[in-house]
Amino acid sequence: MHEETQLLHTTTGEEPFRALTIPVHRASTILFPTVDAFLNRHEQFYDGYSYGLHGHPASRSLAAHVAQIEGANHALILPSGMAAVANATLAVVKQGDHVLLPDAVYGPTRAFADNFLAKLGVDTTYYDPLEAGGIAARFTQATRLVWVESPCSYTMEVQDVPAIAKVAHARGALVAADCTWASPLGFKALDKGADIAIQALSKHVSGHSDVLMGSIAVRDGQLYRQIKDAMGFTGQGVSPDDCYLALRGMGTLAVRLERQTRSALAVAKFLDLRAEIAQVLYPVLENDPGHALFQRDFTGAAGVFSFLLHRRSKAALVDFLEGLSVIRLGASWGGLHSLVALAQIEAQRTVSPWKSKDYLVRINIGLEHPDDLIEDLAKGLDRYRAAAK
Ligand SMILES: *Cc1c(COP(=O)(O)O)cnc(C)c1O
C-alpha cells in the first residue's frame, strides 16, 4: 500500500478510550461491511446510521436525552428551533388543511404560516391564546394541527394546554407545543396533551448563546417516521460539534434554570415596585394573570420575562436601555448573560388586540449576581424618569 493510501486509512473502529463525554464523529459517509448492508442502508434511516445527514452518534445521543426529559419515545434534532417548528408542521399538513396558531405565537412562526404555508394552500386561523373553551369555534372540517405556545413569546400568556388538547383531539386534530420557555424540566408538553413537543435548544438547553439547534419529541412511532421523512426531504442535518455543545449544556440545565429563576424573581419584584413600570409580565409572580395555570401545570420556570413602562419619549427608552452596563441589548434568551430585547406588539395581533402601542421590554436574567442586575436597572430607570417626557 502506498503511503498516500495509508494516510487515508486511519482508525474507524471503537477505541479503548472511555471518557465521560460523547465522541464527536464528523462524517457524511458511513461505511458498510457488506454489499447487502449498503443496499439496505435505508433501513437504518430512522434509528441507525445510513448517512451523516440523517444521524450520527452525537445527534442520536442528544435525541435520546431530549426524548427522556420530554417523556417521549422518540426525538429528532434539527438545525434550529425554527426548523423544528417548520418541519413538524410540514410533516403533518397537506394542501387544503387548516392550522390554528395562537395570536401571540413566536413572530417567525407567524411569518412561516402567513408566507409559506399559505403558498402551499394551507390556511391558518389565529386564536386568542387565552380562549381555551372558545377555541372549538375556530375549527373547520380541515383543521389538522393546533399549535400552542406557553407562555407565549414576549407577552407571556399561559395557555390552558390540556383543555385545548382535549378540544383538538375530539375533532381529530393533532396538537404541537412550543414550550421552549420552561424547557422540558419545567413543562412536560406530552403529559399535558400535546402530540408533538418542540424545543428551541438554542435557548435554555444549549444555554450559552453560541449554538443554534431545535428538537421535536413524540410518543407515536408512526408520527416519528413521518417527521423524520419530512426532515429527509428537506435535508435537515446537524453538526456533531453542535450536538456536543448542546449535550454539555444539558448537564447544567437544572442548576442554571434554578438560579436564573431565583434571580429573575428578585428582579421582577424590584421592577414591580418601581413607579416607572406599568406592568411586569411573569407568570411566576403571584399577581400575574397566568399564575394559577402556571402553578397547576408547570414544575419549573425560567428567568425570562417582560415588562411595560409608563409612557415617555422613545429617547427616554433609548437612554434607559443603551446606558445599561451589565445587561446587554440582544435577541434570543436562555443563556448565561443577561439581555434585553424590545418589540411593539400591537401590529402583530389580529384577534386578541394588545392594549398598548408602547415598546414591551423582554429581559433574560443570566447568571450575574442579582444585586448587580438590580443596580443596573435602578440606574437605568432613574435615567428614564429624568429624560424628557
Ligand atoms: C427562539 C425561539 C424559536 C426559534 O429558535 P431558533 O433556534 O432561534 O430558530 C422558536 N420558538 C420560540 C418560542 C423561541 O423563543
Name the features.
binds pyridoxal-5'-phosphate; 12 strands; Aspartate Aminotransferase, domain 1; alpha/beta; 389 residues; 7-stranded mixed sheet; 2 domains
Report the strand count: 12
The N- to C-terminal Cα distance equals 81 Å
Radius of gyration: 23 Å
Look at the structure and give the mean pLDDT.
95
Highest-level CATH class of the largest domain: Alpha Beta
Order of helices and strands: HHHEHEHEEHEHEEHHHEHEHEEEH
Sheet with the most strands: spatial strand order = 1-7-6-5-4-2-3
Ligands: pyridoxal-5'-phosphate
The CATH topology of the largest domain: Aspartate Aminotransferase, domain 2
Give the second-level CATH assignment, the architecture of the largest domain.
3-Layer(aba) Sandwich
Give the helix level as a range of percent.
25-40%
- Number of discrete helical segments: 13
Q: What is the name of the CATH superfamily of the largest domain?
A: Type I PLP-dependent aspartate aminotransferase-like (Major domain)
Q: What does the largest sheet look like?
A: 7 strands, mixed
Low-confidence runs of at least 5 consecutive residues: none
Total count of domains:
2
**Percentage beta strand:** 15-25%
Topology:
Layout: H1 3-6, H2 35-39, H3 57-70, E1 74-78, H4 81-92, E2 98-102, H5 107-117, E3 123-127, E4 143-149, H6 161-170, E5 174-178, H7 183-186, E6 196-200, E7 214-218, H8 221-233, H9 240-251, H10 253-273, E8 277-281, H11 291-297, E9 304-309, H12 314-322, E10 328-329, E11 339-344, E12 359-364, H13 370-386
Parallel strand pairs: 2-3, 2-4, 4-5, 5-6, 10-11
Antiparallel strand pairs: 1-7, 6-7, 8-9, 9-12, 11-12
Bound molecules: pyridoxal-5'-phosphate (PLP).
